[in-house]
Structures are given as structure tokens and as C-alpha cells.
Amino acid sequence: MKIIICLPKGRNLKESLIFLLKKNLKLFEYNNRKLYIKTSKKNIYILIIKNNDFKIYKKNNFSDFIFLGSDMILNYYLNFFYNYKYLKINTFFISIISNSSYINNLKLLKFYTKYKKILKSYLNFKNIKYRIYNMKGSVENSCILKSSNLILDISESGKTIKDNKIIEIKKIAIFNNYLIYNINILYIKIFIYLEMIYVKNTYK
Q1: Which domains does the chain have, with CATH numbers?
Q2: What is the mean pLDDT of each run of 10 residues along the chain (204 residues)?
């Protein structure tokens, strides 16, 4: 009987692994390309997944625990009827970022972002007219190359913004990390485990 913990790739993977290490959960034979990893605890495994795949894993009960940033929860309009626990891993911001051309193009607010739903909700609330283009990967590049006036992206230390001489206009939200778990599946696994240990097999 396995317990599977899903960790999305990207920004929080390193911090999530450090968090688990502090909880005495060590990884065996881990490298950047390995996706299914044994741990120091018997029957507990780590599965590295793509950020957007967490919906499939949650819906189909492929995992027992998922580490997830609240930005993903809001952007996909997931409800918090999930069982969850706040994790003290790191705090990050989602910010509107601009290049110098923003000042000369106030009437044409053209955004590039992968957080389309979050941005749309914010701009509608502020009654701002906009045009949003979906973009994944290094969203900052569209701002640096001036192919867009504005972007919405994650900002932690602000070092990338400063080093590339672009401007943080406004932090619109503060995000944290959560541990999402399926309590029903965990109960079933606990009952199976107890049955294996304490219930005699009368058919032998």
C-alpha cells in the first residue's frame, strides 16, 4: 500500500523538497529527470508532475497529497471544499509588470500572462478596459522585448524585475502554498492497513 505525494515542477519544487527534508522525509536517488522517487519512509513515494496536471491527479485519485500554490487554485477556479492545510514554505506575489512603453500607451492595455482568469477578475473589478493574451513560459520576455505593454506574473524577490530594468506597477495578490489531500482515500488505505495487520484470513 503506497502513499503518493505529488510535487509540481517549477518555482516551488526546491522549497517543497527542503520542506519534506525538514520533516525527516529523505529522497533516494533523486535527480532533475527522475519523476517517481523513493523516500526514507517505507511505502511513501514522491511523484513530480507538471503544474497543470494536478487537476487530473486530484480528480482520478492518483495521489494522496498534492503540494500546490494558491495561484493555481485561483487561476483554475478550484473550490476549497478540498481538504487542505496551509504550508509555511514560501510567500510570493502576483504583480502587474511593465516596460517603459506603458507610459506612452495608457489607452491600449495589452497584457500577456498565464494567469488569465486572475487578471480578468482583477481588471473587471477595477473597470479597466483590456486585451489579454495567453502566454506560458518566460512571460517577462514579452515585456523586455516590448512586444507587450504589460504582463501579470509571479514575483518573489523582485530580482528578475530589477536586473532586466522593467517596472513592477502593482502587487495585486499575495499567495502561499497548500497541501491538498483526499481524506476518503486516506481512510480507505488506513482501514486496509489495519485489516492486513489485525484481521485474520479465515480462508487460509
Answers
A1: 3-90+177-198 (3.40.190.10), 92-175 (3.40.190.10)
A2: 83 83 83 83 86 75 80 64 72 84 66 88 86 82 76 80 83 84 68 63 48
